[in-house]
Write a structure and sequence with these properties.
The protein has helices at residues 5-14, 20-30, 59-63, 71-77, 79-90, 109-125, 150-158, 174-187, and strands spanning 2-4, 38-44, 52-58, 98-103, 136-141, 161-167. It is of the alpha/beta class. The protein has a 6-stranded mixed β-sheet with strand order 1-6-5-4-2-3, sandwiched between helices. The longest helix is centred in the middle third of the chain and has 17 residues, at 109-125. The protein is globular and about 40 Å long. The relative contact order is 0.18. The structure holds zinc ion (ZN). Zinc ion (ZN) binds next to helix 6.
Length: 197
């Protein structure tokens, strides 16, 4: 499935307090896959959806702290993951939370494994099964990283992540198209992913 940047901005921006300047900056980083990895974690967790948590990480920034770490690894390893995702899950009985992780490329095999483990761990805290329908985890990637195989994508899908491809300004990258074909074969879903209005 495709997920447009505009849809992400609409859901997390309009109903929350993320400044358009922040989105502009994130968008400029996430719309290309160079040597740096970038990741944005967005979670909704208030009953009015007026509070949205945002975390932006790049491996360039993370490298200053820990060597060679990828953006998604940084997001998962920091306390932010625990507080934001757990915070969202805590509110699932009041309103359906959407946890969205946007990356400028798919996770490498090592990060994919870590992300699966981290998702299982946070769900276990609330005694939730992988297929629990009270929360939606969305993984949105610009394109497929060359080292990401179907194994990683299948494992992420099994761990409850809805796999989507980022569409920026009506444009999908070549690696995004490649990822889209794989996502389609794994999830058997086409078209656009949308959040509630
Ligand atoms: Zn990685």
């Amino acid at each position: 499935m495709l997920l447009t940047w505009n849809e992400i901005k609409r859901f997390y921006g309009e109903y929350a307090n993320i400044a358009s300047n922040d989105f502009l900056e994130y968008g400029e980083r996430l719309d290309r896959a160079g040597k740096h990895t970038y990741g944005l974690l967005l979670t909704s967790f208030s009953k009015t959806r007026f509070t949205t948590s945002q975390t932006f990480a790049s491996n360039y920034e993370a490298r200053k702290k820990e060597d060679g770490i990828h953006a998604e690894e940084y997001i998962v390893k920091t306390l932010v993951w625990e507080t934001d995702v757990a915070g969202a899950l805590e509110h699932r009985k009041v309103e359906h939370p959407y946890i969205t992780l946007i990356l400028n490329r798919t996770p490498c095999p090592s990060c994919a494994k870590m992300l699966v483990a981290a998702t299982d761990k946070v769900r276990a805290k609330f005694q939730m099964e992988r297929n629990d329908g009270s929360v939606t985890f969305v993984l949105c990637c610009l394109g497929r990283y060359i080292h990401t195989t179907n194994t990683e994508l299948i494992n992420l899908s099994k761990a409850g992540w809805k796999l989507t491809v980022l569409e920026m300004d009506n444009w999908v990258t070549t690696r995004g198209k490649n990822l889209l074909t794989r996502c389609h074969s794994i999830q058997n879903k086409t078209g656009y992913f949308t959040y509630p209005k």
